[in-house]
Each structure stands twice: as structure tokens, then as C-alpha cells.
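User: Can you recover a sequence for this backbone? Please restate the input before giving your answer.

Assistant: Of course. Working from this structure:
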């Protein structure tokens, strides 16, 4: 018999070429960037200039100047919060040293979002790394976006304790986005009728933490269309984000349509298909065509659809490489070639079995 414990245990170039993305036609100061404190508010963009690694936006009455690493392509959540399109996934980052080095490399490369979870067992390491590294990079708590998740063992009556534990482990004052990680409850069969009751209770707790400002946005992960529809009928606060497996072989059309209709941000995990898509012949062909890695092609495919991604690596050079997604564009034809790979194949966990 399959139980929710099975899932829980499994989870224990150049500047000139980069400029076009921020042209007069594509720049949106509200939806594409998280304005930094030193940037003046203004409208009516007239031109963009690039000098070295500095990008300047010239408006009618003023100018914004910033380093390329300050750019924060982002999506606007239904809470009014901006969430970066690129974040570092920390699944399988274990130990203080590995976490510190990966976060340091990510901040250097311009990442401003970090995704963790109770079941990753690294919330404390991530929080410690950020408290040490933010001053080094001239950043503050407000400059980064932190996501964590409620573990299946805390689903239901233990949800409040789980939320408090995440806040304590991270030690960052508040969490930007907190998700219910899995629709089931650890220890219960996936078909158990107590699963819906438990996740409804968990959502009520998340709503309370949201109303208190401890969570700036709340959402869910690994929910199906049925789970989402159930939640939308009972919730007082609509989910801001749905995080699910998403890649060219699993394009999740129905879930994306539901999210668009409901104003929920659709976020991807396992963009590389647990690494198995890196050797796909179509991906390899496009990587050669664009002079990119297979990972960059797969991540760009999602980013170009305005879908947030969370690549993960403990290798600093790979972290930097995965972050170079905004200095090239995949043609419409090649986007179609990648999307045509869709066959509904899952490389991770299957939540459709959870009642």
C-alpha cells in the first residue's frame, strides 16, 4: 500500500548581448523588476544605455543606473508581492559548508530567491548562510525572497507547530512564501479520506500566519486540478503560488489554465526532469544551436513563458551557469519543438493518487 510517508522519505556573454531584454518595448518597472532603494520612481522610458556592466534607464526627468546583478526579473503575485523568476533550489543541499558556498555563488550570480522546505532539513543552514552573506553582498533581508514548505508529517493538527518551526529554523523574521508541500499526510494511505480534512486545516493555519504578517504569501505544492478546485472553494485567502513539476515532457496544460483563471502564479520545479532531459536529442540540438548548456535551454524555455524556475546545484560554477538565462532568447519555432515533447511523463512524485 502506498502511503504519504513514501513521498516524505524520498524528499528527507556579454553585456551588449544582454541588453535587448530590457529595451523600451519589454521593460516594465512594476512587473519585471523589484526596484532597489537607490532607484528613483519615474515613468516614460526614452532609452537604455549600457556601459560595461552598468545598465542605465533614461526617462523624461530622471535616470536609473544599476549593475546587471541588480536586475530582478520577477512575476507579480496576487498579494502584490514580486517573486523573482529565478531562484536557487536547495533540495539535497546538506551541511553548513555546502549551503554557504551555494548561496554565496547564487548571490554573486544575481539570484535573489531561495527555496527550501522542512523536509529538506536545511532551513537552519540556509538562514545562517543568508544572515552571514547578505551584508557581504551589500544586501538586506528585504532584497531576497525566501520560500519554505510545511512537511507532510505536520499536515493537519500539527500545522501550527510546523509553521513556527520553519520560522525559527530560518531565523529571518518572516517568510516571503510558505507552501503546503504535499496534499497528503505522512503516515496515512494516499486514499485516506482524512487527507482533505487535514490539508484544509493546514490551509487555515497558513491563512492565520499570513494575516499576522509572518508569511507574506502562501501557496501549495504538488496539488492537482482537483486539489486546487477543492482549496479554491473553501479558502479565505487564495493561494498565491502553485509549485509543481514542469518541463517539456510535462507541460501541465490543465493546471496552468486553472492558475491563469484563478490568478495563481504557476512555478516550476524539476525543470531538468531530474537530469534525464539533459540528454534528450531535441534539447541537445538546441543547446548546440544557441551555444548553451542543455540546462540553460530547459530553464530558458520556462522563463520565456514567465514561469519561475528553481535550479539546484551544490557546485558554485554550475549555480552561476544556471543563472545565465536572460542574455539569450529561444525562437518561437524552437519553443514549439520543446513543447512538442510533452507526453505527460513525471520524473518525480505523483500526487494524483492522493485523495
Amino acid at each position: 500500500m502506498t502511503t504519504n510517508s513514501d513521498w516524505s522519505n524520498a524528499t528527507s556573454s556579454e553585456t551588449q548581448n544582454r541588453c535587448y531584454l530590457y529595451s523600451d518595448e519589454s521593460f516594465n518597472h512594476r512587473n519585471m523588476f523589484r526596484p532597489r532603494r537607490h532607484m528613483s520612481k519615474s515613468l516614460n522610458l526614452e532609452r537604455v544605455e549600457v556601459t560595461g556592466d552598468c545598465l542605465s534607464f533614461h526617462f523624461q526627468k530622471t535616470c536609473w543606473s544599476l549593475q546587471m546583478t541588480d536586475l530582478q526579473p520577477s512575476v507579480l503575485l496576487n498579494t502584490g508581492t514580486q517573486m523573482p523568476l529565478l531562484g536557487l533550489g536547495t533540495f539535497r543541499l546538506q551541511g553548513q559548508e555546502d549551503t554557504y558556498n551555494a548561496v554565496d555563488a547564487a548571490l554573486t550570480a544575481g539570484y535573489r530567491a531561495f527555496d527550501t522546505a522542512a523536509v529538506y532539513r536545511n532551513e537552519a543552514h540556509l538562514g545562517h548562510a543568508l544572515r552571514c552573506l547578505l551584508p557581504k553582498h551589500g544586501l538586506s533581508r528585504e532584497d531576497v525572497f525566501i520560500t519554505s514548505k510545511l512537511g507532510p508529517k505536520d499536515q493537519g493538527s500539527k500545522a501550527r507547530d510546523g509553521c513556527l518551526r520553519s520560522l525559527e529554523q530560518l531565523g529571518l523574521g518572516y517568510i516571503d512564501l510558505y507552501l503546503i508541500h504535499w496534499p497528503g499526510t505522512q503516515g496515512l494511505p494516499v486514499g485516506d479520506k482524512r487527507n482533505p480534512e487535514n490539508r484544509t486545516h493546514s490551509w487555515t493555519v497558513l491563512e492565520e500566519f499570513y494575516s499576522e504578517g509572518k508569511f507574506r504569501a502562501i501557496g501549495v505544492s504538488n496539488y492537482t486540478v482537483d486539489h486546487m478546485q477543492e482549496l479554491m472553494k473553501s479558502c479565505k485567502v487564495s493561494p498565491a503560488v502553485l509549485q509543481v513539476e514542469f518541463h517539456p515532457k510535462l507541460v501541465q496544460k490543465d493546471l496552468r489554465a486553472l492558475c491563469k483563471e484563478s490568478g495563481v502564479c504557476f512555478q516550476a520545479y524539476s525543470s531538468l526532469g531530474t537530469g534525464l532531459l539533459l540528454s534528450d536529442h531535441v534539447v541537445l540540438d538546441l543547446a548546440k544551436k544557441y551555444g548553451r548548456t542543455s540546462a540553460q535551454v530547459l530553464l530558458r524555455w520556462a522563463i520565456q513563458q514567465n514561469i519561475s524556475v528553481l535550479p539546484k546545484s551544490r557546485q558554485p560554477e554550475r549555480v552561476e551557469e544556471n543563472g545565465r538565462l536572460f542574455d539569450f532568447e529561444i525562437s518561437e519555432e524552437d519553443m514549439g519543438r520543446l513543447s512538442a515533447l510533452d507526453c505527460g511523463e513525471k520524473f518525480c512524485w505523483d500526487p494524483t493518487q492522493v485523495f
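That completes the design. The CA atoms of residues 118 and 235 lie 23 Å apart.
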